Amino acid sequence: MAEDDDEIILSELSDEELVPQMHDDLYDGLRDEVVEGVNILLGRGWTPYDVLTKALVEGMRIVGIDFRDGILFVPEVLLAANSMKAGMAILKPLLAETGAPRLGKMVIGTVKGDIHDIGKNLVSMMMEGAGFEIVDLGINNPADSYLDALEREDADILGMSALLTTTMPYMKVVI
Fold this sequence. Notes:
Layout: H1 15-27, H2 31-43, H3 48-68, H4 74-98, E1 104-110, H5 118-130, E2 132-136, H6 143-153, E3 157-161, H7 170-174
Parallel strand pairs: 1-2, 1-3
Helix pairs in contact: 1-2, 1-3, 2-3, 2-4, 3-4, 4-5
């Protein structure tokens, strides 16, 4: 028996089978399969918002639970996030066209003195997937960058990231 006999053909799955399979593919960081699943669901008439919430966001929710519980670690979460990002790239212009609900606007950045952005990028992607518009200030941001962006963007939420214990107190300065 050839190994390929066990290969799952995504297009042959029903919606009820495909969505949990997409959760698994996202969990496993299978970027190409996630993209294929997104395109299949869209081709079947799913709204971009339903694909986003029921397939991608729900899949990342499962990843988040297992990360919290110590089953998954940062490298696996990054693979899953990269897969979600690929699916989001397809959905983003479609969501804008269909006027998917926007929950608000978030300004986010890494604080002054810190150049780590993995956590910030994960949070940005999850918030975007949940329906927020994201204004990413990048790394090493002084307080004025946050204040200027909050005013300019009329943001609802401010997100700050700091990995280093030496930069964490700077969050209080911004607040």
